[in-house]
Amino acid sequence: MADIAIAQSNREFHLNKLAKTPSELDMADQGPLREEYPASWAILADKGYQGLHRNLRAITPTKRPAGGVLTVSEMDVNDKIASDRVIIEIFFGRLKTLWSVVGDTFKWKRDNYDIYFQSCVAFTNVHIRFMPLRAEDGHDLHRLVNGLISTGQKKKAKRAGSVAMSRDKRKRRLSAMYANGETFQLSAEMEYDESEDGSCIFD
């Protein structure tokens, strides 16, 4: 599922967290989309969230049009957004380096993830008070993300190899049955287990 789809499916959660408190409604707010969302603070997002502004007060970089170029003003805004987002990447680098439960594949009960994540964020904030964020933390985030992507690709390749091997074994088994002159029928009601990738490999 794409990141923007996940964000849209959690729209009510984000609206609740972005809502200004009564005392904040009178605070100066010169940010983008303030007229469309006067009672909401904004989210800074990357280009993968294009269109999110239709659901939330989301500030995203402007994508270069096909065959065109960005204006000087658009490039300036993109640079400012990128600069502000750096601190976010640095924070997540520290978070994921400190706590493997949020920096690696989560294998426990999904319903418990929120409490673990919130606890790790709270502990990270305390850690930062004693050890301020550094640029190296951002590099750690990229290293961890690249590692997860590599692991995911390896698992996908291994799964594809297993499916191919199962199909090959089945072909050889059926070929042997035909060679021995055996006949068989596959009933429409025959039960079989469907694999996660939808290959419907018979046992």
Automatic annotation (TrEMBL):
Organism listed in the record: Aphanomyces astaci
InterPro entries: HARBI1_dom
Pfam families attached to this UniProt entry: DDE_Tnp_4
Record-given protein name: DDE Tnp4 domain-containing protein
Highest taxon above the source species: Eukaryota
Keywords attached to this entry: Metal-binding
Cofactor(s) essential for the protein: a divalent metal cation
GO molecular function: metal ion binding
Every DDE Tnp4 domain range: 38-125
Keyword Metal-binding: yes
